[in-house]
Design brief:
Elements: H1 13-21, H2 34-43, E1 65-69, H3 78-87, E2 93-96, H4 102-114, E3 119-122, H5 126-134, E4 140-144, H6 145-153, E5 158-163
Parallel strand pairs: 2-3, 2-4
Antiparallel strand pairs: 1-4, 1-5
Family: Belongs to the UPF0065 (bug) family.
InterPro entries: BUG, Bug_dom1
Organism: Comamonas thiooxydans
Amino acid sequence: GVIIENKPGAGGNIGADLVFRAPPDGMTVLASPPGPIAINHNLYQKLSFDPTRWVPVTILATVPNALVINPKLPVKSLGEFIAYAKANPKKVTVATQGDGSTSHLTAAMFMQLTGTELTVIPYKGTAPALIDLIGGNVDVFFDNISSSATYHQAGKVRILAVADEQRSQILPQVPTFAEQQWP
């Protein structure tokens, strides 16, 4: 049998540390987002594990991120959102999955590339960030399209752009960033 243990926290470092400390007998496997494997060694001064010592087995999935907003924001496109954010510096709030998460880094890169200043609100994962976005407590969230698509279709959030080379098969009506002249 297989036993699955979710060990969230510290950007995935808690679970990764447990895997690192497990006997190297092939019985313990880490299924992880990019944080513990590719990002955290650049964000944390000291990790209790060395991700370069692990052997990758497979890529389970690739899921594009999307710019997801609360539908009460008075914008309908990426260009309108950028103009709105520039006209309201630090007033537009962006949820993240936590400090150093992919959504946090995406938000930072977005602000740098667009010259916008958003107020970053870190959460403990996707679920609470998405709940507060739907509830109107935050304005925007860079989320993977699969967790936001159903809420977009129900009108509870609005997805303005998908970060992929092609439109998503899940939401083909949503344009990519590149289609809207943004990297």
